[in-house]
């Protein structure tokens, strides 16, 4: 048969989640508190559910047919009114989720640009690039020392920067000053920013930007991806969006959206018409109220966890669903093992998100077990939870 | 900003549908009979609609969360029972549609294999390859002379063959003998077949294979893509599937499904959980009865059209929703213009699907206007419909 596509050899084997799962499987399900997952635990709103049901009924006597690859204009308008007063609805493309859009954006970019990717990071930015054959990836350490942001004083030559804020996994939120300087740099050095704002609804501090387009001039240098998944409980339904501003142009002055529309028309047929109706309901007055309640609930869980972990240094959890916990061990797999052994709490070792994640674990406030986990940590004591002198130490990955 | 991704220069501009639309816009909507569209005109079944509504109601108090990237196992089992008695359900991957799967398959293959693509053809096979930077495309004429199948006696060296049966646009269905010889050739010459069976439910002749896996040995050389779109009215809902058999291996003996699972886990998050419930209902006893009624209705429309066009040579329309009409003009744009001017029937000029489509037009039996179109052709007379001596001839594209 065929030779194997050589691009796949650029990927690291997927040991991380497999290994976490294998460790989890050693504990009885009812005892284990799974704080590793980034998946939601609160359902979609009654508003969304009712609208979806109504539309489903209508489908037996209405032909919807293929919708536009860019999704429904009404939904783009609702997104513009809710999130993007500074944009035109025609700059918003509805999709089946941010992950899928990131893959399609890599297709748009081709496989020969120099990509800057945060370290630690959500693995999809680099893995989509590698599968398409792009090896020109520079990891940009985002550690406590650099305020969990790429060090712009030492930014290497890149063509594209992937930035996630609020960040997965660190929970850090880029400040206005950080983003202003970044946009200025992107304009002068002519690189593209791909801004992943999938967690922006968690931002409560009015001083923190929720969208890159709150920064002047960003519409000439940035694409933004985002999602209904977390704030509206849509993870399984699949709905997201991508902003490609009209002012964004390639070196020859050709607007990028022209090739983007070619990508989505060729590799995609638009998100489900039914799910898009749910998206409209999500952005209604009642839908947005439900979203705010959902976000408050997750943030309250995060706060309980943060309080329980208080002797430790924790980033995130205030404007973000993730807690990035600095652990006394240098090896984050040791901390992972200790927390699992002592408190049956499943976390993710920070090094799983990249080398700069060593010394941290990620806890997710999406988990329904947050309150119990916080109580358990308080009962046992933080240092006892993380103490694991006599266990054999598994190899870090 | 960025240099443009050079792959896009490999694409031809998208004039075809734009030009057809521009011509259509010159006629009042109520007079125009649009037989150009491949989109459905019959709704989803009551069964599907009710199940979707029920599931939508349930979603306000049930957490579905991320499903597996490969889709629901129950739905894979239902597909296996309905369509693939010879396969294992684990070989079936549920998706958001055949077009999206074709794009992801190109990602799996990489951009350096030699692709054989039928001419005329559905444009997505070549366009997805070109956008990913693959220029190694050989067009394989599928004309009346070669029984609308690639000439296997003169098959060039290729790594992958894309084959669509029942074919879009020619309506031709590959025979068992044709497919047997093809599979044999793929095995001996070690190329991969990507078999698009999106229209297989239209096959009524029990002698014609509906799936490539009806051919012995195909599971070692073929991937199959298919869809709920046409038979179940799911075009807007987005649901399809892809079969990657366990026996399919690369040159080093590594099963292809391993890299395929990496592609879907990285570029995709699975189809919508809600829509998948609709898919289950579609494959229930009542759902399949509704499918058969739908197919019969489309085939009856095709028959009416075929009868009206009877003096002309027409392929398809019997085991396929498309009619491929041989026109007296050599230039298919002339025939397109004549039919539009004389009978206000919108077709697609065959040359729009590739050079070998010259001298043909495609008519779609999906259109709700088929009966009226057939009556109009009969009233005017076929030759008068296609006669256009005094009009200026537009340039072919």
How does this structure look, described?
With 397 residues, chain A is of the alpha/beta class. The first copy, chain A, folds into two domains: 6-43 and 286-386, Aspartate Aminotransferase, domain 1, CATH 3.90.1150.10; 46-284, Type I PLP-dependent aspartate aminotransferase-like (Major domain) (Aspartate Aminotransferase, domain 2, 3-Layer(aba) Sandwich). In chain A, 37% of the residues lie in helices and 13% in strands. Chain A is built from 13 helices and 13 strands. The first copy, chain A, has helices at 15-24, 46-58, 73-83, 98-109, 124-131, 176-189, 229-232, 256-267, 273-282, 285-308, 332-343, 370-380, 382-386; strands at 33-34, 92-95, 115-119, 137-141, 160-164, 192-196, 222-227, 240-243, 314-316, 322-326, 345-346, 348-349, 360-364. In chain A, the strands form three sheets. In chain A, strands 2-8-7-6-5-3-4 form a seven-stranded mixed β-sheet, sandwiched between helices. Chain A has a four-stranded antiparallel β-sheet with strand order 9-10-13-12. The longest helix of chain A is centred in the last third of the chain and has 24 residues, at 285-308. Chain A is globular, with a radius of gyration of 21 Å. Chain A starts with 14 loop residues before the first helix and ends in an 11-residue tail after the last helix. The interface between A and B is large, with 88 and 88 residues.
Short description:
The structure is a homodimer of 397-residue chains. The first copy, chain A, is an alpha/beta fold. Helix content of chain A is 37%, strand content 13%.
């Amino acid at each position: 048969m065929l030779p194997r596509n050589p691009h796949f050899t650029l990927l690291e084997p997927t040991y991380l989640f497999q290994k976490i799962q294998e460790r989890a499987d050693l504990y009885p399900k009812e005892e284990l508190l799974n704080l590793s997952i980034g998946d939601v635990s609160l359902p979609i709103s009654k508003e969304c559910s009712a609208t979806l049901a109504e539309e489903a009924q209508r489908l037996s006597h209405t032909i919807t047919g293929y919708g536009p690859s860019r999704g429904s204009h009404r939904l783009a308008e609702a997104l513009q009114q809710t999130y993007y007063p500074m944009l035109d609805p025609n700059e918003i493309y509805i999709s089946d989720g941010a992950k899928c859009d990131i893959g399609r954006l890599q297709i748009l970019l081709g496989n020969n640009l120099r990509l800057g990717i945060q370290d630690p990071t959500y693995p999809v930015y680099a893995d989509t690039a590698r599968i398409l054959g792009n090896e020109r990836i520079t990891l940009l350490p985002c550690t406590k020392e650099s305020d969990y942001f790429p060090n712009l004083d030492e930014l290497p030559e890149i063509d594209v920067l992937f930035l996630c804020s609020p960040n997965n996994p660190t929970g850090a939120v880029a400040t206005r000053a950080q983003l202003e300087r970044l946009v200025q740099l992107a304009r002068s050095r002519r690189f593209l920013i791909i801004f992943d704002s999938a967690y922006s609804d968690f931002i409560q501090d009015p001083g923190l930007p929720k969208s890159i387009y709150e920064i002047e001039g960003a519409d000439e240098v940035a694409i933004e991806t985002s999602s209904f998944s977390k704030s509206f409980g849509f993870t399984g339904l699949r709905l997201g969006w991508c902003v490609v501003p009209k002012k964004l142009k390639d070196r020859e002055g050709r607007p990028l959206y022209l090739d983007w529309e070619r990508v989505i028309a060729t590799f995609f047929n638009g998100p489900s018409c039914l799910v898009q109706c749910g998206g409209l309901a999500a952005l209604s007055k009642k839908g947005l109220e439900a979203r705010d309640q959902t976000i408050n609930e997750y943030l309250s869980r995060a706060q309980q966890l943060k309080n329980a972990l208080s002797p430790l240094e924790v980033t995130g959890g205030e404007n973000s669903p993730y807690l990035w916990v600095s652990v006394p061990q240098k090896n984050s797999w040791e901390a992972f093992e200790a927390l699992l052994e002592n408190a049956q709490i499943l976390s993710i070792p920070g090094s799983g998100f990249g080398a700069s994640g060593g010394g941290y674990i990620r806890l997710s406030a999406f988990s329904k077990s947050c309150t119990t986990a916080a109580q358990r940590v308080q009962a046992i004591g933080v240092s006892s939870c993380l103490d694991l002198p006599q266990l054999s130490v598994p190899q870090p990955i």
